[in-house]
Amino acid sequence: MDEREKRLAQNEALFREVNERIKSTADGLGTVDDFEYFCECANADCTFQITLTGAEYESIRSDPTQFVVLPLHFTPEVETLVSESKAYWIVRKTGAAGEYVEKLDPRSRQ
Ligand SMILES: [Zn+2]
């Protein structure tokens, strides 16, 4: 993993961290419906939001190497595409970057 790849992985992990707080707020409110999360793409300047149900969010989070991004917010050099839908895409980090983001996962740290 080179410096650029590491930086891109850090950007994604940072937005995941923010989304985890959003999720706990949603849980605290007893929200089961749609909630706004941030796009977890590699671009640090991206602050677009994605609407997800609690179940959609949890299924993405069940794999510590997966991130949710807006359609086309995908960086093929540093991740692989897992699935595409109209509202969002799911990407996965592999190899050293995958291990790195797994270590940064707040759920893996607990
Ligand atoms: Zn984005």
What can you tell me about this protein's structure?
With 110 residues, this protein is α+β, with helices and mostly antiparallel strands. 44% of the residues lie in helices and 19% in strands. It contains 4 helices and 5 strands; from the N terminus they run αββαβββαα. The strands form 2 sheets. Strands 3-5-4 form a 3-stranded antiparallel sheet. Helix 1 runs parallel beside helix 3. It is globular, with a radius of gyration of 13 Å. 30% of the residues are buried. The mean pLDDT is 95. Zinc ion binds at residues 39, 41, 43, 46, 48, 69-70, 73. Residues 39, 41, 43, 46, 48, 69-70, 73 line the site of zinc ion.
Write a concise keyword list for the protein shown above.
110 residues, alpha+beta, three-stranded antiparallel β-sheet, 5 strands, 19% strand, globular, binds zinc ion
Number of strands: 5
Helix content: 40-55%
Question: What Rg do the Cα atoms give?
Answer: 13 Å
Can you count the helices?
A: 4
Order of helices and strands: HEEHEEEHH
Global geometry: globular
Structural class: alpha+beta
Average per-residue pLDDT, rounded, comes to: 95
Structural topology:
Blueprint: H1 3-28, E1 35-38, E2 49-52, H2 54-61, E3 66-69, E4 80-84, E5 89-92, H3 95-104, H4 106-109
Helix pairs in contact: 1-3
The structure holds zinc ion.
